[in-house]
Amino acid sequence: MDKNLIQRLFSGAIYGLLIFLCTTDYGAKFINSLSPGLVKQEQLYYGLITFFVAVGAYESVKIMKFDSVLYRWLVLPLIALVYYKFTTRFFGHGFYFNYNLSEILALALIVIACITLFRFASELYYDEGKLIFTVIYVSLPFGFALGLPKFYEDTFTWEVFMLFVLIWSSDSFAYFTGRMFGKHKMAPKISPKKTWEGFAGGVFFTLILGYFIEQKFPELRGNWMVVGFLVSVFAPIGDLVESQLKRTFGVKDSGNILPGHGGVLDRLDSFIIAAPVVYLYFILEKLF
What we know:
By secondary structure, the protein is mostly helical. It has one domain. It has ten helices and four strands; from the N terminus they run H-H-H-H-H-H-E-E-H-E-E-H-H-H. A hairpin with a 2-residue loop joins strand 1 (151-152) and strand 2. The longest helix has 25 residues, at 224-248. The radius of gyration is 19 Å and the shape is globular. The protein starts with a helix and ends with a helix.
């Protein structure tokens, strides 16, 4: 078997296991079986998301090639401040939804950052633009991700893990459908391998998977056919956003933390866009 394939399979398995242990209640159960009372599941989840934020910030700085040493060193503390202030409502008192001005502003900023990347990329050649984009792109989406699970007493629900399952499935279904039937390019200059046929296949099969999740996991909030549809539409957009970012700055991979798979931003590009969208859906579903 090809050495690179073995490397990809091994690192992919480690990544999948890490996601499973930190986004379901099995992580804390396993650790506490070795040392009772050592961790709570939400602590593992906080740690995972915070790790993604830290590595994502580092990778974004590398991709965008900051010219100023001052701005380069300013990124991480500024991201930490925004991430903490935006997500502090999730710490210490479980998870809840409070549709307020800060969340509306955060969602709007993510949209504006993506539009800037595609339509006004020249603004990102200045360190000020790079700094603002990095703070928005890295800290806010992961901040929204902290609000996805329901946590109460000793229960930690599986919304985030199922979101990952849908993202992985959407990517896989789109890839295989595109390989078999793809003829019409979706964004040839940004991601030449993506096709509209693949996109349609990803939507169709992810909807089916969402239906099975809805039937098997009734304790999850929201309708998971709707979540499946949102993921199948917005996960490819997340992939295009990161592809455009790398294309703008002439970079192949965001990093090499996962041998054979690239960096954190490479693996989580779909999640970065899908998580805020699903969070918004959960808020609207609660309101109406």
